[in-house]
Amino acid sequence: MIGGRWVAGTSAANINPSDTNDVIGDYAQADEDQARLAIEAARDAFPGWSRTSPQQRADLLDQVGSEILLRRDELTNLLAREEGKTRAEATGEVTRAGQIFKFFAGEAMRIAGDSMGSVRPGIEVQVTREPVGVVSLITPWNFPIAIPAWKIAPALAFGNCVIFKPADLVPGCAWALAEMLDRAGCPAGVFNLVMGRGRVLGDVLVGPGVDAVSFTGSTGVGASIHARAAQHNIRVQLEMGGKNPLVILNDADLDLAARIACEGAFGATGQRCTASSRLIVEAGVHDAFVARMSEEMGHIVVGDARAADTTMGPVVDGRQLEQDLEFVHHAQVEGARLVCGGTSPTRESPGYYLAPTLFSETTHDMRINREEVFGPVASILRVEDYDEALAMANDTPFGLCAGICTTSLGRAMDFRRNAQVGMVMVNVPTAGVDYHVPFGGRKASSHGPREQGRAAVDFYTNMKTSYFGC
User: Could you say which of 53, 285, 287, 351 would form a disulfide bridge with 314 (CB–CB 3.0 to 4.6 Å)?
Assistant: First the structure.
């Protein structure tokens, strides 16, 4: 969709990862010239859209949120079929997307400023916020409707115009969002959808005519976007990788800890930046935790994402499966003990399946503990005490989130204060966040203002200070 019109392009097949014989559809892919046209359309639309009333923007977003929730079953099926989340996970994501649009409908009405007296007599000062302009939104495949929602909704709520490029593996959800925005009466050029490969469209979307870029994806791609944006003085918001620790102390409830670890490590097939990939366990409960974790993993049912009894779907495609299996092989070569999983099971339909995988007897310098796997693979590290656990949790280039399982309020508060991350979870999974609060990390995980919640206003608006002589 460019300038309010659906435009043809080269087509690419959208394949179901649970059944590679199932083609969801053929979706158009844009080229560089079409991406430039989308930027031009957004620039033309910006003066009018930026001056619309907050009520008009709120009504648009609220209508989209309502349609998402009304079509929850249909969109759940599409998401499960396209990305491979289980029906329960897909339903949760679709619901969250609808709630995000409705939340930012409210935020459109609450763009606040300040009025204050000057230190100089006879002068008043006003601080106001204005939209940034044209923003490129580049999203990943692992949350194909929720992450686009938490970028598109605030961008539009605060008066910006959007160029939206979803991951090429999940065009269906992006197409559905574009249709809903169009039906809700989004003016031509305010929202533009360009689908296709990042290597084809990336330089255009982080180039002349764009005022800001919000990206979620790999650390390497994020670094290249940052460098290119700097050449054009483009504002950047980056959410990238994670290697998130979950610390289990001797005083933890091990049944609860095992459930939390399983949800954090294997929920959404481990394909989320907040996954608990490093399980750091105090020596006093190490062996008991490994046994309890193995038992809990035995309840996971791997299969077609749409099947009622499936509790973990496939990985997203063949390349991701190959990468995950390579990590499994390398961990064994380095001496890690494979507790369970590590295989690619066959099912009735051909798909990209990987059994949930757990390693023990790993060391901190192993590749599996240093790099993001982005699959259902977790490793256990044994430590002697809390101080060693905290130091190991922080010894990583990443800093998205960290969790701890403990019954000690003192340890929980110390961990909250000293964990070098943007988000801390105490006795809850590292994966799973609310839509109305800030999201983001530190170090190589994030760059720029936070996403979601009221914090989103910091990225999508400029602040202006005005002086009035009385």
Answer: 351
